[in-house]
Design a protein that fits this description.
The protein is α/β, with parallel strands linked by helices. The chain has two domains: 151 residues, Response regulator (Rossmann fold, 3-Layer(aba) Sandwich), CATH 3.40.50; 321 residues, pyruvate-formate lyase- activating enzyme, CATH 3.80.30. The chain is 40% helix and 16% strand. It is built from 19 helices and 16 strands. A hairpin with a 2-residue loop joins strand 8 and strand 9. Helix 8 packs parallel to helix 9, helix 9 runs parallel beside helix 11 and helix 14 packs parallel to helix 17. It is globular, with a radius of gyration of 23 Å. One of its GO terms (cellular component) is cytosol.
Length: 487
């Protein structure tokens, strides 16, 4: 038997379908005995895994691992299983081991790493474990040889979603995952593509999946969403694609195919791509239920965008702010502030640019991060000239310093002066209080009025220093922050 484990990554109210393990389960369905254990639902996943090992002949524990809280949960559970059941092989897959394979493989309790897209790699790994093929022939696999030395095989070419079967939703209590959100009472999630064709210097997606994007056909996407609606009562969906709108013809066809489902939905897109869409396409997306779109605006400085290799301009971001307002779609703009090239200038120009966007479209949601690099292919330091020495084990990544770095709470970036960091953090508090996110469905009306009132004078006058009253108010109200929802 194979056990697929999704370690806890979020609070119960934020849990969503574990798409990563469902994708792996899809290729195991009808060919291997397997069970899914989800730490976001199971209060004691280690006990559940242990019962399966004691009841069945479990030969492999597959663990899906994202950086942050899930990595810590994966580390703790893997260590306990290895100690109690040393004969069970453990394989890690997902974003964390794909971007940091050497660190993950340095853990004594990890036997194999599946990098990037894992469906075919896992099937071939099972064949190798059963003596049917050589480990060194498996693309996308990292492992320890007979001498305990790490081996990293060549990368595996990516396949499109249509080349794999549907997720076996029946294997999970789907009703536990359709949680209320701003978009609906029963919000599902879906991944309609994999990869990203762009090369932003601070992003780890192409480090994990290369610089290609494979799209699911609109017909299949519509069929899966229809299944979630008719079988489980989904009324809304969040698309987890890095670029949901890569091509206008694809977006328009999909909008027409799902309009009848009456879903409200959220997705991610690029400002350069969508700024060129026709009014017809924007109107079709709105009719199809598009409610909010996340855009990586990243900076208010064109020179910083060039250094990031982002491939967009501030003018295109302004265009998106105008057009989303025209069609009644909420834009969610994300910024990574403090570019290592000139963090003070980038901060100054980006804060002014954010104010410009809010004036153009007050409904714009603003998400602010400190510039946080990840290792890049051919540039292992994310465009920061070797100023960061990356941890070499999961245990180091689990330390407070690196957890804060991973979650962008406090990166301790050597190029970011304390006064600049404080300015970014204080501005975030002021603008987040002046325009509390619409996505917090739990916050009472009075709390929003209080925050807006307290912050109005600061925002109007551009006074961001020492916002103590706003810090106290935010702690008292505990308003949801979109970038902190997994904590």
């Amino acid at each position: 038997m194979i056990v697929l484990f999704n370690p806890r990554a979020t609070k119960p109210r934020n849990r969503r379908l574990p798409l990563a393990v469902l994708a792996i389960a899809a290729v195991l369905e009808d060919r291997e005995d397997y069970e899914i254990v989800d730490g976001n639902v199971d209060d004691n996943p280690v006990a559940s895994i242990s019962r399966l090992i004691e009841q069945y002949d479990v030969e492999l524990l597959g663990v899906s691992v994202m950086p942050g809280p899930q990595m810590v949960a994966a580390m703790d559970a893997s260590r306990e299983i290895r100690r109690a059941y040393p004969h069970v092989k453990i394989v890690w897959g997902g974003y964390f081991p794909s971007v940091y394979p050497d660190a993950a493989l340095n853990a004594k309790y990890v036997d194999y790493i599946v990098r990037g897209q894992g469906e075919d790699t896992l099937l071939e790994l099972l064949d190798a474990m059963r003596g049917k093929r050589a480990f060194d022939s498996i693309l996308g696999l990292s492992y320890k040889d007979i001498f305990g030395l790490p081996r990293n095989n060549a990368e595996r070419p990516m396949k499109g979603p249509d080349e794999f079967p549907w997720s076996p939703f029946h294997r999970l209590p789907v009703e536990k995952y359709l949680r209320p959100s701003f978009f609906g009472k029963r919000t599902a999630v879906h991944h309609a593509s994999i990869g990203c064709p762009f090369n932003c210097s601070f992003c780890g997606v192409h480090a994990a999946y290369g610089n290609k994007e494979r799209m699911e056909s609109p017909e299949r996407t519509a069929a899966i969403l229809s299944h979630l609606v008719t079988e489980y009562g989904a009324d809304s969906v969040q698309f987890y694609d890095m670029n949901f709108f890569l091509r206008e013809d694809h977006a328009l066809e999909l909008a027409k195919r799902i309009e009848h489902l009456n879903l409200r939905w959220w997705c991610e897109a690029r400002v350069d791509v969508m700024s060129r869409y026709s009014d017809e396409t924007f109107a079709a997306l709105k009719r199809a239920g598009c409610t909010m779109i996340f855009f990586g605006a990243e900076s208010g400085s064109d020179w910083a965008l060039k250094e990031m290799k982002k491939g967009i301009s501030t003018e295109q971001t302004v265009t998106i702010a105008e057009r989303t307002k025209q069609f009644g779609i909420i834009p969610e703009f994300s910024f990574v502030i403090g570019n290592p090239g000139d963090p003070e200038r980038d901060t100054r120009e980006t804060l002014a640019f954010i104010r410009k966007l809010k004036k153009i479209n007050p409904d714009s949601e603003i998400i602010i991060y400190h510039y946080t690099p990840v290792p890049q292919p051919g540039d292992m330091y994310g465009n920061v000239d070797g100023q960061i020495a990356w941890p070499s084990t999961p245990a180091e990544w689990a330390s407070k310093r690196w957890m804060d770095f991973t979650l962008r709470i406090d990166t301790q970036a050597p190029w970011l002066q304390r006064k600049t960091k404080d300015l970014i953090d204080n501005f975030e508090i002021v603008i987040g209080s002046r325009w509390p996110t619409v996505q917090d469905i739990r916050a009472p009306k009075w709390s929003r009025i209080l925050l807006k009132t307290l912050s109005a004078w600061r925002y109007a006058l551009g006074v961001y220093r020492f916002p103590v009253e706003l810090q106290w108010a935010n702690e008292f109200i505990s308003l949801r922050k979109p970038k902190r929802e997994s904590l």
